[in-house]
Amino acid sequence: MEVNESMEVNEAAKKYTYEDYMNRDDDVRFELIDGVMYMMSTPASAHQQILAGLHGQLYNFLKGKPCKAYFAPFGVRLSVGEGKDTVLEPDLVVICDKSRIDDRGIAGAPDLVVEVLSPSTSKKDKTLKFYKFLQAGVRELWYIDPADKTVTAYLLRDGEYVLGGIYTDTDSAPVRILDGCLINLQEVFEDL
What we know:
Layout: H1 18-22, E1 30-33, E2 36-39, H2 45-62, E3 68-71, E4 76-79, E5 86-88, E6 92-95, E7 101-102, E8 105-107, E9 112-116, H3 122-126, H4 128-136, E10 140-145, E11 150-157, E12 160-168, E13 172-174, E14 182-184, H5 185-189
Parallel strand pairs: 4-8, 9-10
Antiparallel strand pairs: 1-2, 3-6, 4-5, 6-9, 7-8, 10-11, 11-12, 13-14
């Protein structure tokens, strides 16, 4: 199976389908964007620590509420069967409509997507995936940068993303789609 390890896309390359994605080798993680397979690298320890801290706070806030937080690997099927099959695996998602969740992940846009940036994925996360999340209608999108300990939040307004805020490791960042939810970023970044 041909896969892209970079942003270079050969338009003549074979287009893959959701079925190809589901039949891939389970030992290697991929994302499928417009029918092109992109190999995913193994996350660094800082990446995992950030996700653990964030997921812990979200999990505690969401207890007893309809929304739930899930972390990768968790397939987000944004388009299937349209010739441009797209299945992404964001680092963390919050989903409020449980009827769209199945054993393979979620069909459609999560309410919140969080991507922890790394040198090998930052460009793809901020370009290709950014526009896929926008087109799908993800209501809130966060980029967490471990290098400078910041969170950049975007909010969907009238079909466009607007900057919702940039937060540092001394801030509490509001999750705007979850009324009253504040993430203590000092706790998220404390072990870095």
